[in-house]
């Protein structure tokens, strides 16, 4: 099977839908409230999915456009990888080193400038260090980091692969 650009873009859209669907299942069915870092991870995944959807619909012929879409998707999912890595690091801290819990994301967005909100959220808080879901002994941020890293590898492959012109 040939992994053409459009097929890989569709696969990336599907991975985004699966990831967000699972996050919404955990939130609305299992009752796990997402911490601010979880929400920011979702934003990167949604962004990558939307970029891949545009790439799928556009189906560019030019390798420059293909690389442009792949670059944007890589940046977006790279954001999720970075935030998930920070989340895993926060959960690995000893209890006395965990930052204190701060105000909720809704309050921060309403009360502070966006730059300050980003700084506050990305620094993490005590609620982000709580492990409230595990699978095979690993927390949700660990599984998210693995999932996002796999998607990042696909995006990087899409960015750097050879787009040779097929002559008929």
From TrEMBL:
Disulfide bonds join 35-38. It is a multi-pass membrane protein. GO terms for cellular component: plasma membrane. Residues 1-8, 162-168 are cytoplasmic. It is found in: Cell inner membrane; Cell membrane. Keywords: Cell inner membrane, Cell membrane, Chaperone, Disulfide bond, Electron transport, Membrane, Oxidoreductase, Redox-active center, Transmembrane, Transmembrane helix, Transport. The chain crosses the membrane at residues 39-57, 69-89, 140-160. Residues 26-43 are periplasmic. GO terms for biological process: protein folding. Its main location: membrane. Required for disulfide bond formation in some periplasmic proteins. Acts by oxidizing the DsbA protein. PANTHER family: DISULFIDE BOND FORMATION PROTEIN B (PTHR36570). HAMAP family: DsbB. This is Disulfide bond formation protein B. It comes from Acinetobacter vivianii. The gene is dsbB.
């Amino acid at each position: 099977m040939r992994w053409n650009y459009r097929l890989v873009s569709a696969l990336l859209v599907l991975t985004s839908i699966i990831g967000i669907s699972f996050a919404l299942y955990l939130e609305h069915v299992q009752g796990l409230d997402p911490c601010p870092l979880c929400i920011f991870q979702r934003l990167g995944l949604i962004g990558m999915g939307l970029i891949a959807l545009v790439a799928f619909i556009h189906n560019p012929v030019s390798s420059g456009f293909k690389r442009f879409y792949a670059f944007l998707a890589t940046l977006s999912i790279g954001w999720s990888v970075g935030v998930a890595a920070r989340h895993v690091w926060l959960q690995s801290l000893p209890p006395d080193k965990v930052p204190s819990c701060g105000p909720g994301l809704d309050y921060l967005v309403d009360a502070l400038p966006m730059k300050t909100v980003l700084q506050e959220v990305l620094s993490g808080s005590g609620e982000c260090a709580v492990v409230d879901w595990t699978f095979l002994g690993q927390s949700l941020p660990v599984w998210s980091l693995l999932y996002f890293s796999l998607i990042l590898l696909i995006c990087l492959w899409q960015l750097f692969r050879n787009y040779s012109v097929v002559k008929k």
